Amino acid sequence: MDGSPAAKAGVFRGDALIAVNNEPVPSTKVAEWLNERIKRNGVQPLNVMTARAGQTRSITIVPEVVCSIPVILATSDKINAFTDGQKIVVYSRILEIARSDDELGLVVGHELAHVNMKHIEKHAQNQVAGALGGAILDVVFALNRVNTSAAFSKAGGNIGMKAYSMDFEKEADYVGAYYAARAGYNVVGAEPLWRAFAQENPKEMVYAGLHPTSPERFVQMQKTGEEISRKRQLNQPLTPEMM
Known about the structure:
The protein is an alpha+beta fold and 243 residues long. It has helices at 5-9, 30-41, 93-97, 101-116, 119-143, 151-162, 165-182, 192-200, 214-233; strands at residues 16-20, 23-24, 46-52, 55-61, 71-74, 81-83, 88-91.
């Protein structure tokens, strides 16, 4: 790929790969073999031997640490993006709403923050805790010969899963803006993204649900952009001010 460590080192399309760290490349399942060597090698320089037009070359590739979570574009008329911890999915409708790559950077940064801040795991833990609390009530009713059909367990799990959801979303907005800024996107002035979301879904203007209202997100993003801009002016590291 253009800009990749291999491209920077001088590996080109059409080059034949002969050896990696002095190990001959097999004739079958090359991709799996190569992935295993790269994974095992970690961040250490990788020596590869290539051939082109009958001439061999020894090239040293210096690996770069990057995010391993792929960003996938899915066709949908819904205005949404989500992560399951293994990938980030952005629905195509967002491409019509966002005015720039900077605003798209905020969307991806938000989902990446959910992963790194372990919000998915915390949601699961809260769900288990809520279900256990509800199960106690189910047992109490069962001892009195009342069959609740695990209604309290289910309700408790649902309540637990939603616990702190709004706080998680605010944290993801904040941390995600830093991720986008550190990736080179200009987050100052990108806050109208949330206003555009609200125009598409007016109820978010006044009803928070599991997410902050759009005006809240707009104001928070504006403040976060100013905070990031101030740090840049002072040559300070772009690190979120976590409590």
